[in-house]
């Protein structure tokens, strides 16, 4: 299990790069609607502001601002991944390909 050093600033703005395990994959652009649906679902439960989001075939960059008093960006990423993976259950290999790294 990864042991990331995380800064905890409630209400902060964060830059992320998230990679697929398979850097040769184009999963993110082929299944962008699944990622979008998982993000919308997560935002309804745990609001955050998306300042910017760039999605490339095998990785993405984004800038989020969390609500005042909230610093749980890792929980939001966990929920996005958790919610996107069941949507990949009907496609062999896609769930494993989505599990990547989160570099805050």
From TrEMBL:
Domain Transposase IS200-like: start-end pairs: 9-102
Organism: Klebsiella grimontii
SUPFAM superfamilies in the record: Transposase IS200-like
Matching PANTHER family: REP-ASSOCIATED TYROSINE TRANSPOSASE
GO molecular function: sequence-specific DNA binding; transposase activity
GO biological process, one term: DNA transposition
Record protein name field: Transposase-like protein
NCBIfam families recorded: REP_Tyr_transpos
Domain of life: Bacteria
């Amino acid at each position: 299990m990864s042991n990331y050093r995380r800064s905890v600033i409630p209400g902060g703005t964060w830059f992320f790069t998230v990679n697929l395990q398979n850097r040769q994959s184009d999963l993110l652009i082929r299944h962008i609607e699944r990622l979008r649906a998982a993000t919308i679902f997560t935002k309804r439960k745990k609001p955050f502001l998306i300042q910017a989001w760039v999605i490339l075939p095998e990785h993405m960059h984004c800038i989020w601002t969390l609500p005042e008093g909230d610093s749980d960006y890792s929980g939001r990423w966990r929920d996005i991944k958790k919610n996107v993976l069941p949507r990949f259950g009907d496609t062999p290999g896609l769930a494993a390909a989505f599990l990547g790294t989160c570099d805050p």
